[in-house]
Amino acid sequence: MKLSPYFYDLRSAYQAELDDLVSDSEGKDVLRKRLAEKRNEIAFLVQMMELAPEMVAVAFHQGFRFAKPAAVEHVLGLPQDELPDWHSLTHAVTLEPWAQSLAQTVLREPQGARFLAVAAGLEYMLQHARMAPAAHAEAEGDDDGEDAAEHDDDFSALSADDAADPQNSRTRDEASSNWLADVGFDRKD
To answer: Using a CB cutoff of 8 Å and minimum separation of 24, what contacts does 177-184 make?
Structure first.
C-alpha cells in the first residue's frame, strides 16, 4: 500500500496523539478515560478538524469497521485535495454504533464529510500497523522507484495499543524513539 504525502505525515501525528493519551504522569493506563473525555468534547473539537485532524480523529479510535480494505487503501494514496467525502466510503467502512452520534456532530460541519474519510484512513493505518512491511512490498512490487520508497507505508512503528500492551516485547520508549526519529530528531542510542 502506498501512502500519499498527506497521510504519510498525518500517520505519525495520529500515532503520537494516541500515545499521549495512553498513560498519565504516574504511568497508569488512562487511554479509555481520555478517549471518553475527547468523545464528550467532540462539539468543541470539530473546530480543529482542518488544522489538526489527528487531534479530532482520536475520538473515533476503534470506531470504524472496514468491510472493503481496498477502498480505504485507495483513499490513503490520494493527495489531500482529491480526498473523497465520507458518503463515498460508506459501502466500504461502517461506524461502530457508539461512534454514530459523534459522526453526526462532525457531519454538521462544512468539512465534516471529508474529515470522516480522513479519520477512517488514519484508524485503518493504525489497525493494520501490526502487518509486516515485507508483505506489503511483495504484494505491490517497487516499480515507482525512489519516490514510492519515500512514502511506502512502513508499518513497523508502534501504535498506542502496542505501547499500552504489557505483552508486547517492544516498549513505549521504543515507540517514542521511533516517532522522534520520524519527525527528524536524532536517536539517543
So the answer is: 179/12, 179/15, 179/16, 179/19, 182/12, 182/157, 183/12
Is the CB of residue 7 less than 8 Å from the CB of residue 121? Answer: yes
d(CA 17, CA 4): 20
Query: What is the tens place of the pLDDT at every residue in 143-171?
Result: 444 443 444 444 444 444 444 444 444 55
Domain assignment present for 189: no
- Structural domain including 111 reads 5-182
pTM over 0.85: no
Total number of domains in the chain = 1
The helix/strand/coil state of 34 is: helix
The answer to the question of residue 116 being in a domain is: yes
**pLDDT reported for residue 153:** 43
Cell matching residue 85: 467525502
Q: Which long-range contacts (CB under 8 A, 24 or more apart) does 105-111 make?
A: 105/42, 105/43, 105/46, 106/42, 106/46, 106/49, 106/56, 109/46, 109/49, 111/49, 111/50
